[in-house]
């Protein structure tokens, strides 16, 4: 391992420490803002370090750099403007929107990595193939689910529980289809087409799972979807072989799960009842 | 099961345990900011998009990277800024009450 690689690994480790300490500081009101800033500092270091790795390795295509920079600037500006201008009361749906795009990015990483290796998909190791499927499925569900949750809070989708006739059966069929497609993909009988199928099934399942839940329960659902995105990001870390993604993703996955339980307890609502849906009138409930 | 997968699984499992431990007795007022803060942390997916960009060589790949980069950048910048705004309000409100 060269000196450069060692330094990069140590910086990623320091970033992971920043994320953990940052979340820990956010447990108390007095230190919460400092915690968020420490976490942001770690994130900046991780991004700068990765940029340095890309420059150092010189393997990246010119068009890829252009796409990365253009997309990055576009997304950063959109994120900054919406985060700065949003009304205080509209913050939960904005967090849900940010969660949706995060899950979407994780799902796109699964697709992108599979596309880059599409010539030899069957020859991929288990470490990559299984996590590609999980990343795509979890990321797809959180992308569409968080968009519906955000729409419910913003009033674009009715806040009341919307029962889809036979929704549970459709979900069961979608789940089964995803499992069958995953089986075909993992055994090398199907290529990219299976992945696209899993992606569509996940998107549909995300909508169908969130629609029957009332607007009053949305904050808990957003927290749950947040934990799911964390897990999807950790899976993306397995796919790309990046410790930084695995650590931060697993951290958010577990912390988000605990937070979901705390929020549900605070509302005196069991999580199972919230997910089953059908409760809460939404707009007039608060 | 090879050594790389085992190493990754170890890191993943220990990070999950740290995640469970790091959230302790959070006051209910901090639930939403903490959720938003955790949301910003998974913006680390932008690092993943950057790593992905190094391995794509097709037009479809470039388009994917473009969309993924926009998504991830929005998650990470918006996430931290909105969390900071929430926490800033939290403090002024408390000071105003004194």
From TrEMBL, chain B:
GO terms for cellular component: plasma membrane. The keyword Cytoplasm does not apply. GO terms for molecular function: NADP binding; proton-translocating NAD(P)+ transhydrogenase activity. The chain crosses the membrane at residues 43-76. It is a multi-pass membrane protein. Coiled coil: none annotated. Keywords: Cell inner membrane, Cell membrane, Membrane, NAD, NADP, Translocase, Transmembrane, Transmembrane helix. It catalyses: NAD(+) + NADPH + H(+)(in) = NADH + NADP(+) + H(+)(out). Its main location: membrane. It is found in: Cell inner membrane. It is an enzyme of class 7 (translocase). One of its GO terms (biological process) is NADPH regeneration. Residues 9-91 form the NAD(P) transhydrogenase alpha subunit C-terminal domain. Its EC number is 7.1.1.1. InterPro entries: NADP_transhyd_a_C (IPR024605). PANTHER family: NAD(P) TRANSHYDROGENASE, PROTON-TRANSLOCATING NAD(P)(+) TRANSHYDROGENASE. The transhydrogenation between NADH and NADP is coupled to respiration and ATP hydrolysis and functions as a proton pump across the membrane. This is proton-translocating NAD(P)(+) transhydrogenase. It comes from Pseudosporangium ferrugineum. The lineage of its organism: Bacteria, Bacillati, Actinomycetota, Actinomycetes, Micromonosporales.
